[in-house]
């Protein structure tokens, strides 16, 4: 081989020898010359000729929690020697992610010079099951200086693993399921979910799988389709639950283990992406007793803070043998119970505990209970009127009690309406400095004085929706500047029409007969009218539950007597306590009556309000400035600056309409310590 090389370079060596060099020297010079030529050639190629090069590096999290925001930092560099014109960085988010924009996000640049770097930030929330991978991709589209052809660089690929799905999903399944040999056995279970994330999660679904022999009856809330519940958007730090009622057929096998499961998924790109799956099991047994319970004469009752509750617990012997010397205990669970108010005439509240017990001494059915015989115990207890939740886990408020009889147990749960408050305050010098007010204080006739009105919403237990606050303005008062933390404040300064029953839509009219035992929106609106028309029989403290019970019946009788000439006299019949045709006509006449509000109305349309507002965090606040000019007839008097504020909202947990009032504000301004006298001069 060496001989062959020598032969090829021999002519060059011979030429060097003609210059007087030895053969060895000539050969060395020849080799060095060839090497030098190669070096020069490489330099020309690498440094003098134009070269294109692109570098893409990505700083990314190797793992991320589902639903939390992950940040990706992408740096592009021109590693070549030519200018890149209009380069475009393309960042391809993975499927089943929620980026700030589209799945293909593009970042355009004017130019990218040799050696220049540019950095871009991309953000996305990843969804899926724990341990799943989400693959990302980034590349650069560009053209060389003076050319129009688009070139795509090589892609940079990287992966993030979903390390955790922080949403809690819990199946609250009783450990034992009754299976009676001769009759259907009711079975109730619950599914709870909670998001600790500070971002909302859209388009959530909850699906449930039952054992094949479980006969579904009803659920709260109702199923949307199949065995699915459309949760929709789960707000930050929000919780929810589903209660499902069904039964097992008569004669169902005992000692059988049954499995229930639930899956939580999010709808992304037209697909349901599974986030979490949980299962729980129960075992069937033959019961000795059947239990049922009523609160305030209703099997399903949604209570209010501060309300006195009347409990009736029914138990029945479903065996074929009599039972003797029984004792029954109920355990009140939940921080909303005021145990100091328990009244159990035939039972005993164990001091310092939440246990109420009964025995055969005062309850004969517990002394001897024949087959098929039913017994009852009763007690009263009041809920705390101002209990503040300690943390977010106490939202979606529940009260529950366990009933224990002869070694068998049944739990009853009832949802509690949120405690909602509207606090109305008035200031001449407001402590938070919302506005600079001017004018004489105390106010003087024919001179304008400015005041600040502050509205604060507190909502303790459950999510609210369609939240609205309203207040009317008295004569001589006008609205100035407005500030609100959420929602929109509207002012009606021209004559307007106001409904004498503000929580009833102005277009609503009664269209059908109503009677005891019915439940629904029309019953709620009937109760709101009765509160106003016959407050002695339907006092403000009694909630509008939407259930037509004895209280509604008796109040409606009083309403029919009040308008006897229009309702009872034409028919010649006594008060029935039912909404018949004549009663319905009078109710609709009242709804049609309106009154002019010549001095305006302030409306704060808030929308949704999260639980814990005013308890776990500051109240939701709005403020507006008013101007008041007293008339001569008001001299020496105290004048009203704004009438009662009324808040109305729908409780998402109980699906009931809630409302309450805040006190009117007059010129004494009780919240402003700088005001000593509100008498008009």
Descriptive tags:
flat, Immunoglobulin-like, mainly beta, 681 residues, 44 strands, 7-stranded mixed beta sheet, 7 helices, 44% strand, 5 domains, 5-stranded mixed beta sheet
What topology emerges from the helices and strands here?
Layout (H helix, E strand, L loop, with lengths): L1 H16 L5 H26 L5 E6 L3 E3 L3 E10 L5 E9 L4 E3 L4 E5 L2 E2 L4 E10 L6 E12 L6 E2 L3 E9 L3 E5 L3 E3 L6 E10 L6 E9 L5 E6 L7 E7 L4 E10 L8 E12 L2 E15 L3 E7 L12 E10 L5 E2 L2 E7 L3 E7 L4 E2 L5 E5 L4 H4 E2 L4 E10 L14 E8 L2 E8 L4 E8 L21 E11 L4 E9 L4 E8 L3 E5 L4 E2 L22 H13 L16 H13 L1 H4 L13 H12 L2 E2 L4 E9 L10 E9 L11 E3 L2 E7 L5 E6 L2 E2 L15
Parallel strand pairs: 2-11, 13-20
Antiparallel strand pairs: 1-3, 3-8, 4-6, 4-7, 4-9, 5-8, 9-10, 9-11, 12-14, 14-18, 15-17, 15-19, 16-18, 19-20, 21-22, 22-29, 23-28, 24-27, 24-30, 25-29, 26-27, 30-31, 32-33, 33-40, 34-39, 34-42, 35-40, 36-39, 37-38, 41-44, 42-43
Helix pairs in contact: 1-2
């Amino acid at each position: 081989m060496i001989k062959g090389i020598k032969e090829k370079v021999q002519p060059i060596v011979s030429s060097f020898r003609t210059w007087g060099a030895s053969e060895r020297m000539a050969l060395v010079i020849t080799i060095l010359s060839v090497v030098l030529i190669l070096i020069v050639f490489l330099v020309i190629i690498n440094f003098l000729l134009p070269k294109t090069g692109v570098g893409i590096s990505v700083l990314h999290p190797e793992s991320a929690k589902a639903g939390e925001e992950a940040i990706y930092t992408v740096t592009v560099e021109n590693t070549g020697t030519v200018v890149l014109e209009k380069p475009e960085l393309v960042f391809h988010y993975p499927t089943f992610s929620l980026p700030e924009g589209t799945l293909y996000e593009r970042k355009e640049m004017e130019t990218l010079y040799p050696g220049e770097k540019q950095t871009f930030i991309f953000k996305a929330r990843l969804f899926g099951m724990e341990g799943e991978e989400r693959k990302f991709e980034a590349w650069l589209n560009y053209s060389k200086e003076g050319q129009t052809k688009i070139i795509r660089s090589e892609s940079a690929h990287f992966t993030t693993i979903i390390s955790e799905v922080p949403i809690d999903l819990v199946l609250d399944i009783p450990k034992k399921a009754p299976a009676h040999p001769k009759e259907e056995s009711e079975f109730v279970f619950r599914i709870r979910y909670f998001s600790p994330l500070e971002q909302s999660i859209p388009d959530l679904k909850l699906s449930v799988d039952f054992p094949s022999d479980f006969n579904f009856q009803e659920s709260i809330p109702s199923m949307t389709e199949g065995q699915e519940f459309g949760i929709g958007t789960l707000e930050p730090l929000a919780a929810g639950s589903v209660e499902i009622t069904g039964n097992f057929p008569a004669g169902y096998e005992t000692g059988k283990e049954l499995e229930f499961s639930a899956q939580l998924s999010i709808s992304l790109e037209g697909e349901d992406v599974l986030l979490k799956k949980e299962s729980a099991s129960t075992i069937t047994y033959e019961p000795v007793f059947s239990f049922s319970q009523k609160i305030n004469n209703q099997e399903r009752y949604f209570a209010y803070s501060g309300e006195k509750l009347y409990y009736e617990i029914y138990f029945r012997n479903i065996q074929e043998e009599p039972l003797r010397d029984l004792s029954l205990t109920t355990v009140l669970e939940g921080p909303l119970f005021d145990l100091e108010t328990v009244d159990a005439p035939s039972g005993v509240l164990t001091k310092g505990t939440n246990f109420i017990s009964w025995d055969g001494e005062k309850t004969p059915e517990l002394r001897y209970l024949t087959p098929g015989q039913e017994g009852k115990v009763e007690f009263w207890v009041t809920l705390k009127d101002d209990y503040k939740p300690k943390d977010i886990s106490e939202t979606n408020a529940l009260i529950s009690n366990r009933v224990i009889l002869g070694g068998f147990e049944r739990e009853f749960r009832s949802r509690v309406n949120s405690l909602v408050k509207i606090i109305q305050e008035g200031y001449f010098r407001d402590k938070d400095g919302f506005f600079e007010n001017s004018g004489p204080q105390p106010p003087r006739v024919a001179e304008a004085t400015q005041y600040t009105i502050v509205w604060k919403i507190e909502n303790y237990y459950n999510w609210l929706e369609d939240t609205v606050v309203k207040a009317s303005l008295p004569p001589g008062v006008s609205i100035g500047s407005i500030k609100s933390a959420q929602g929109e404040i509207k002012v009606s300064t021209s004559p307007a029409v106001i409904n004498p029953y503000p929580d009833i839509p102005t277009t609503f009219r009664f269209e059908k007969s109503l009677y005891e035992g019915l439940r629904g929106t029309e019953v709620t609106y009937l109760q709101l009218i009765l509160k106003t028309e016959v407050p002695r029989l339907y006092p403000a403290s009694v909630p509008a539950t939407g259930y037509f019970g004895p209280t509604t019946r008796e109040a409606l009788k009083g309403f029919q007597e009040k308008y006897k000439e229009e309702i009872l006299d034409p028919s010649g019949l006594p008060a029935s306590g039912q909404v018949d045709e004549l009663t319905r006509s009078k109710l609709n006449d009242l709804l049609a009556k309106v009154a002019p509000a010549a001095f305006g109305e302030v409306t704060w349309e808030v929308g949704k309000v999260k639980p814990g507002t005013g308890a776990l965090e500051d109240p939701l606040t709005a403020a507006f400035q008013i101007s008041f000019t007293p008339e001569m007839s008001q001299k020496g008097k105290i004048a009203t600056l704004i009438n009662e504020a009324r808040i109305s909202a729908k409780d998402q947990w109980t699906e009931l309409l809630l409302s309450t009032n805040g006190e009117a504000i007059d010129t004494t301004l009780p919240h402003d310590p700088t005001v000593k006298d509100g008498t008009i001069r």
